[in-house]
Design a protein that fits this description.
The complex is a heterodimer of chains A (475) and B (453).
Chain A (H helix, E strand, L loop, with lengths): L17 H11 L6 E17 L2 E19 L2 E7 L4 H11 L34 H17 L4 E19 L4 E19 L2 E11 L5 H4 L2 H16 L6 E8 L6 H8 L4 H5 L20 E4 L20 E6 L2 E2 L6 H6 L8 E2 L8 E2 L3 E4 L6 H6 L3 E13 L5 E13 L2 E6 L3 E5 H6 L1 E4 L4 E9 L2 E9 L2 E9 L4
Parallel strand pairs in A: 7-14, 13-20
Antiparallel strand pairs in A: 1-2, 1-4, 2-3, 4-5, 5-6, 7-21, 8-9, 8-13, 9-10, 11-12, 14-15, 15-16, 15-17, 17-21, 18-21, 19-20
Chain B lengths: L1 H11 L6 E18 L2 E20 L6 E8 L4 H15 L33 H16 L5 E20 L4 E19 L2 E11 L7 H13 L10 E7 L1 H14 L2 H5 L20 E3 L22 E5 L2 E2 L6 H7 L7 E2 L8 E2 L4 E3 L6 H8 L2 E8 L1 H4 L6 E12 L2 E14 H6 L1 E4 L15 E9 L2
Helix pairs in contact in B: 3-4
Chain lengths: 475, 453
């Protein structure tokens, strides 16, 4: 909602005054401890939804507060408060410091570096856009989806934007701020026919302001969702068993997010709960696989200037031509190994502790022609769009679901298939990639881990896996 | 409590003529302890509070009403003022709809449920820490094959809610809850398998650490040596925990809102036989054993028992007041909302199947040959309550000669939800009340496609 008169006005006013930050950090370490940190956040969101041809609801939300973390040896104490006054922060610091029982911290002077305010990275702040302009997008998308075919019986359109100002300061000498603006639109269509109902989904989501809609065609997003639903009305059951699979560029990046991304997060590594423990330097994937996690790509859904521990976002090569080069790190796990964070410490909000998270994770493009890859696949499954997935990092087993897929017969894409999950084992599937094309693209998504959700990007070019198990109902 | 209701009423009292206002105020406190390798890895405790306000504006000429919503994670007076003003402004932009209105009181008396354990606040932080550490140690030392305890957690929460509206709704409720959960990794050479266990209750003394620990260990260790199996059609016996997940999925299709908007495979099928005669499914938030037990729904109406499928026949859907008006019926007291930042929608809180005759071993013996599924993955990416398509990753054990045999992993099981409901062979009597919106028990379903090698 709009700023009330007494809330922080200009973007260069800090969420918490530097002198207060210093006193709160000192208080947090009064009973001892290795590190204290304040993460202050002010998040404003607005959303609108259209369903059943009606603008059902506009909503606005506001959440401000701070989380305080005190680390003593291997133990982390954490408390959060919605009260950003000095008294409120001191109370939270006291609660977080309860884990430091040894005392002996004594008085500690905390000196922070000079601060540099960071302007919001958006050309058009969504809060400055009149509500009717946002609603117009919903109505346009609804019209475009319904115009795609008479069998479209229901359309749901969602619009959302958020602005998240954060300040992170710690006794490690960190003082950083960021101002993250995100905007998204999604369309879900239901098509009805003789064989029942099918759904189609498409979305666009970028780390930018309302200028997003100068760059994307909302009508086309709606038509893609509608076509996806319509196409499945005549779909046959997906096959079962192990088949060659060609993944189209973009959403297939979820494969890497699940097959190895989570397993390369250092919290799983230090707990010995990943199949990739101790494998740096080893060939863990086909030589065609170069995997990168990059939080610095302006505008991508998983982009930020600094992570939620105040470290700059990084571009980290995880797998280079099939060889595992590194894991992703946050401050806590990097410290154990005597190294630096890779800028992957993220949290859902000030009410959560940071942990190792992906940003924008993608497979570098190859050189082959995507049509040739299909032409050289005598039979198999072509996955045009993946939905989501899930992985067990300790075993490496993962699933990912199709939302648009076709049979490949004699090197040609033929009949549409009903939705199904594919299942595989990370290290095995990565070794079975035998072709990567040059048609790279990215897809936005939401990644859930240990109860926290954060925006991420996934990307890849068209690729082929020589064999993976697909879970359809056809024998 | 009365302080929260006073705040909610003070917002409602500021409604302008012709305006409907509803205020939902919540306050909570929670603690989380995670143990790892004999140490406290994390100790977090915090309080939070917030408000969500809906404003309904009547439109001219009986066209209907418009609703707007705003929320904030704070109860400061100036923030509350801003929330009301913003909800009012948002309402002006919605499409007028004859079915939109705040729920009026319906005269149904609230159940007498005590969901607040008075002993809750007597549990010290030290005691909570001790429980997490004890659980971690217990699992670590339980079996030579357990090579890691990925996490051992204790958590608890207390929540108080007040809801008031211009239609005369005045509701307050409060609840406490506590849980322990643990995740074990069993290893044999290069191989790893995982299993989890948990226990839930209204407060720490109700938790069964041993049961949670044993579950995690048994589930991880028995999967060691698992492999893929050949694809084929099998009778599948689902573990109670998996059944609870499946019922939660089915509940989306039983939401009156999904039905009236043509997004449920149950739409248009009231009164028809949709499941095996063995299936009787009710949503009963007034059952105190249910994790989701509640006195009031998300619009402040009394929660009540609703029988949704009776002997295989689809009898009813769950409705909130808006979906009910759209469907030409009345609310079933089934509005659910995700705290102060969410708006109400129709949903289930405490689904449970009427128990059958057999326990798990009886069902395995009756089935003879098949697959026992211990856990599933990919529910969000592989199950649709619109089309009914069902495809999930699975791990578990083969059933041979009526007993559990060798372990299986990296397979999928697939069918459609419509077919699965009609193909239920056995419903167990081994009901477990689990976290989430549904209870679980062992269930056997015939003729599912298993995809492996």
């Amino acid at each position: 909602m709009p700023d009330t008169p007494s809330s922080p006005g200009p973007a260069d006013a800090p969420l918490v005054a530097p002198s207060v930050v210093e006193r709160v950090l000192a208080a947090a370490l009064r009973r001892g401890g290795d590190m204290a940190e304040i993460f202050a956040e002010d998040r404003q969101t607005s959303g609108a939804s259209l369903d059943d041809r009606r603008v059902e609801e506009l909503s606005s939300g506001r959440e401000r507060g701070a989380g305080i973390r005190v680390v003593v040896g291997d133990t982390t104490g954490f408390a959060h408060t919605a009260d950003l006054s000095e008294a409120g922060l001191l109370r939270a610091a006291e609660a977080a410091a309860a884990v430091a029982r040894d005392g002996g911290g004594g008085a500690r002077v905390v000196a922070l570096p000079a601060r540099h305010g960071r302007p919001p990275r958006a050309e058009v702040l969504p809060s400055t856009v009149a509500k009717p302009r946002k609603l117009e997008l919903l109505i346009r998308a609804d019209d475009a989806a319904r115009a795609t075919g008479g069998e479209i019986t229901q359309v749901q359109v969602g619009y959302g934007d958020s602005r998240r100002r954060v300040l992170v300061a710690s006794t490690e000498g960190v003082l950083a701020e960021d101002d993250q603006v995100r905007t998204r639109l999604s369309v879900v269509c239901v098509a009805s026919g003789d064989t029942g109902m099918q759904t189609g989904y498409e979305s666009v989501a970028r780390t930018m302001g309302f200028e997003l809609f100068d760059q994307v065609d909302v009508d086309e997003i709606a038509r893609v969702a509608a076509r996806r639903a319509l196409g499945k009305l005549s779909a046959r059951p997906a096959p079962s068993g192990e088949v060659p699979v060609v993944l189209a560029g973009g959403s297939g990046g979820i494969l890497f997010h699940e097959a190895c991304g989570h397993g390369l997060e250092a919290d799983h590594i230090v707990k010995d709960s990943s199949v990739y423990v101790g494998r740096v330097g080893e060939q863990v994937a086909s030589p065609l696989v170069t995997l990168v996690d990059d939080g610095t790509i302006t505008g991508e859904w998983g982009n930020y200037a600094v992570d939620d521990e105040g470290r700059p976002a990084g571009r980290n090569v995880l797998i280079d031509h099939g060889v595992l080069t590194d894991y992703m790190w946050d401050w806590l796990r990097a410290r154990k190994q005597g190294r630096q964070s890779s800028g992957n410490g993220r949290r859902q909000s000030y009410q959560h502790l940071p942990m190792v998270r992906m940003t924008n994770t993608f497979l570098m493009a190859g050189t082959e022609d995507p049509d040739e890859i299909v032409a050289q696949t005598p039979s198999g499954v072509y996955v045009a769009k993946l939905g989501g997935g899930q992985v067990n990092t300790a075993t490496g087993d993962f699933v990912f679901g199709t939302t648009e897929a076709y049979l490949i017969e004699h090197g040609r894409i033929t009949e549409p298939l009903r939705d199904a999950n594919l299942i595989g084992n990370g290290p095995e599937v990565l070794r079975r990639i035998d072709a990567v094309a040059g048609d790279f693209s990215m897809t936005p998504g939401t990644c859930g881990k240990d109860g926290q959700s954060v925006p991420v990007g996934c990307g890849q070019a068209t690729l082929r896996i020589i064999g993976v198990t697909i879970g359809g109902t056809a024998a | 409590m009365s302080e929260l209701l006073d705040l909610a009423r003070s917002v409602v009292d500021r409604a302008r003529p012709g305006e409907g206002v509803e205020a939902y105020v919540a306050r909570g406190h929670d603690t989380e302890v995670r143990a790892f390798a004999g140490e406290v890895e994390q100790l977090a405790s915090a309080s939070s509070a917030g408000i969500g306000v809906r404003v309904v504006l009547g439109a001219a000429e009986g066209e209907g009403s418009r609703v707007g919503f705003a929320w904030a994670g704070s109860l400061e007076p100036r923030v509350v003022d801003a929330v009301l003003a913003e909800a009012r402004d948002n309402a002006a932009y919605a499409t007028a709809d004859p079915h939109v209105a705040l729920a009026p009181p319906d005269g149904v008396a609230p159940a007498e449920l005590d969901l607040w354990d008075p002993g809750f606040s007597a549990v010290s932080t030290d005691e909570k820490v001790r429980m997490a550490l004890e659980l971690e140690q217990m699992v670590r030392g339980a079996h030579p094959r357990v090579r890691q305890v990925e996490s051992a957690d204790y958590g608890d929460a207390s929540v108080e809610v007040a809801l008031a509206s211009t239609t005369g709704i005045r509701a307050t409720s409060r609840r406490t809850s506590a849980y322990v959960s643990v995740s074990a990794i069993a290893g044999d050479g290069e191989e790893s398998q995982t299993g989890s266990g948990f226990s839930v209750g209204r407060a720490a003394p109700a938790l069964d650490l041993e049961r949670a620990g044993e579950d995690a260990v048994t589930r991880a260790v028995r999967l060691l040596g698992a492999g893929k199996v050949r694809s084929g059609r099998f009778t599948v016996v689902f573990d109670p925990r998996v059944v609870a997940t499946l019922l939660s999925v089915v509940s989306s299709a039983l939401s009156g809102e999904a039905v009236v908007k043509g997004r449920s495979f149950f739409a248009g099928r009231l009164g028809e036989e949709v499941a095996s005669g063995m299936v009787t499914l009710a949503d009963d938030p007034t059952d105190p054993r249910a994790y989701g037990a509640a006195v009031f729904d998300g619009e402040g109406l009394a929660c009540r028992r609703n029988v949704l499928i009776d002997g295989g026949v689809l009898e009813a859907f769950v409705h909130d007041s808006v979906s009910a008006r759209r469907a030409g019926t009345v609310s079933t007291g089934s509005a659910v909302r995700g705290g102060y930042s969410g708006t109400p929608g129709a949903g289930c809180r405490a689904l449970a199947l009427t128990p059958g005759e057999l326990d798990q071993s009886g069902i395995l013996a009756a089935v003879g040959e098949g697959v026992y599924v211990q856990s599933i993955t990919g529910v969000h990416s592989g199950v649709s309550t619109v089309s009914g398509d069902f495809s999930v990753g699975a791990e578990g054990l083969m059933i041979r000669a009526g007993a559990l045999a060798e372990p299986v992993r990296e397979v999928t099981v697939a069918s459609t939800l419509q077919r699965m409901l009609r193909s239920v062979l056995h419903v167990g009597r081994d009901v477990q009340w689990l976290p989430g919106a549904a209870a679980g028990q062992t269930v056997a379903i015939a003729d599912m496609q298993l995809s492996g090698s």
